[in-house]
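Today's session is about reading a structure prediction critically. Students often jump straight to the picture, but the first step is always the sequence itself: look for stretches that repeat, for charged clusters, for runs of hydrophobic residues. Only then move on to the predicted structure, which in these notes is written as discrete structure tokens rather than atom positions. Here is the chain we will use throughout the hour.
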Amino acid sequence: MTYPAHTTGATSGTAFTLPDRDTKSTKVRIFGTSATIVHRTDHAEHGRRRSHGLGCLDSMELLDVLMGLPSGEAVPLSVVGPSSLRVLRRAPSGVVNFTRRSVTRLVVPAMVPLLAVVYASHWRDGLVRASEFAAYCPRMFVARELPENADEVLAEASWYGVGVAVGPRSAPMVVLEPEALSEWRPTVAWWRFCERVYRHSLDR
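Below is the predicted structure for this chain, in token form.
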């Protein structure tokens, strides 16, 4: 499972906008903080899940086993461990497909996070809260205005790779772009994060 580096198309000095009609934003409460997650939905996977009555997958145990299987490729049962097979056989309909000799992973993440945005009244709070999302996607915080020591704040945010926007929530101006994730690889925790955001998007 590989995904390209995530970018939002935001440009310094311009109001942040979603780059295309397939990109949406969802408000979530996660990691003890509120954030807006910009994401792109895999419409084929979303439709496939709906046809199976399958929502989000929240089991770390199941996701861990699924990440060990290639998507859409039959894997001989003989190479899958007994404990992993037990987990897969308990999975909801639409997650995997079994034959007498093989198992095929059908499910993939239904959405991919592109950017986590937090809104904060204090710069330090914004930096700390935005950093909670460092392992999952680029992140940014939005503040009402620049402080007097703006150069220091922006330098620190840049050091941590956190983007900064300033102004009203409806149309903040990006003054520091978020850093793309370097040498990023999907993890079980990342997939679960995707599923949790997907659940919030379904509740809208």
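Discussion point for the tutorial: The beta strands are 23-30, 33-41, 74-76, 96-98, 102-105, 111-119, 139-143, 163-166, 173-176.
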